[in-house]
Queue: 3 jobs
Job 1
Amino acid sequence: MYPVTVKKLRSRSLIGLPHTGDYQQITEAFAKLFETLDARDLTEKTRQKVAIFYDDPSKTAPASLRSFAAVTAPKTVPCDAPLQHITLPTGPHAVLRFTGAYTGLPAAYAYLYGEWLAQSGKQPSGQPSYEVYINSPRTHAPADLVTEICLPLK
């Protein structure tokens, strides 16, 4: 249904802000992140937007969901409070490439964690999944947005 490949991904250095609440509201954390980066003249030193999702929304109340709104950045970029630094793990990942509006992502997750994982013979590593935003809704129509859902594997 969705294209999934297994790849060895290298670690990525992130700077960002934590978010607690409905995953659909992570845009608020991204807005605060970019306000902070802009105020510190750091936006041009960052690269891709990334969101980490720690909890299963089918098992956790929306108000308690934990996520992290971030950008990839060289380790030399200052990360003073309230910004936080996280390093994503190196290793095998299932990468689902999704094209379309962000509202379609829950169905892509259901496929990845359900049908694909069951048929793949692979096991999740226990690390949280994350999304890498390949392009931006500022410059692309919703139907043309590309998001990679990355699931760390054992």
Job 2
Amino acid sequence: IAKELALMERIKAHLEDGKMAKSFDDINDEDEQQWLESYNLLTYKPVIFAANVAEDDLADDGASNAGVQAVREYAKREDCEVFVVCAEIEQEIAELDDDDKESGLEKLIKASYSLLGLISYLTAGEPEVRAWTIKKGTKAPQAAGKIHSDFERGFIRAEIVSYDDLMACGTYNAAKEKGLVRLEGKDYVVQDGDIILFRFNV
């Protein structure tokens, strides 16, 4: 108990110094690491700062804005992400047609995925096209397991075309004719934006 209390006191001092729990590195052994993780401290979680700026500051992504620079310097020290947004423009974007939207919400989603080490791959067919979220570095069988455990257990191969290639070609058959559809095996590491047809047998 005394050992854990000493850890808590060090963490408390770290937090009272204006630092986030995620930058606390005064850990002596595995027990202390497990205790720190078990406390579920809010600032131990991944953090993204949204810097709200005037429209003029968007041109250089807030590089000339002293406030944004201060946030970026703090975020760098604390291993956090920062993205710049203009609330006034966001309001105007909200009133546009869906095809014309490029919102700060989308920037936030992309930044969140990056911070958490996540990517998406797609499956297409009847009745829907669907995105599946996986950890970056996941191999094809484990990615298939996100859909159903049978897909992973009976994995044979994956038929893959990238989203960008498919959009450029227009159709799946056109992409296939250009050699852009490929077969991959168990060691293939799934890439962000892959469109995958899994072959399996159970």
Job 3
Amino acid sequence: MRRSRWTPGGRNDQRRTYFAPTVPGMTGPRISPLPPSERDERTAELVASLRPTGGDDDMNLFATLARHPRLLKRWSAFGGVLLFGGTLSDRDRELLILRTAANTGADYEWGHHQVLAELAGLSPEEVARVLSGPDAEGWSSHDVALLRAADELHRSAVISDDTWAALTSTFDEQQLIEVPMVVGQYHLVAFTLRSLGVEREDGFEGIPA
């Protein structure tokens, strides 16, 4: 996988790698969305239930995973708990997801969650600042701990003692459990989006250059 430029970040000037949003040579989806005409009744109902509130169009991610409906049903239930039934605030959850999207080069993930992040109270300036990471000026200590946790999980698969201590100052046990779960879930989504070549819908932006 091609990597983009190195950028400084993290304590002790540790270097972090950002992945290029596209895979060289990939010109379209490797697995295309399942057309409505090819869905059985149960699969059609499942995909329809995952449409954004008030929307009539299927998301390409869900329409693609409709080719494996049993997996889609179980995975979407788990993801739905984290997205709609978790104990983290919407703002905290979206910070974790956006930083994970940036770390993994997941354009599709970034585009959809940029919208959700602004609905959750993040300003456009804060959304853009996510790309600069926890060391950028302007974050609260709470935000720094969240962004650093996302980076540490991405880099080392574990939250450091210092970052854990910072998180425990504001989060309860259920929220602490959800932090790595959210980051892990959206790594899974990023891996799937990028490897299957799921294309963004019109109107959703990718990660800024």
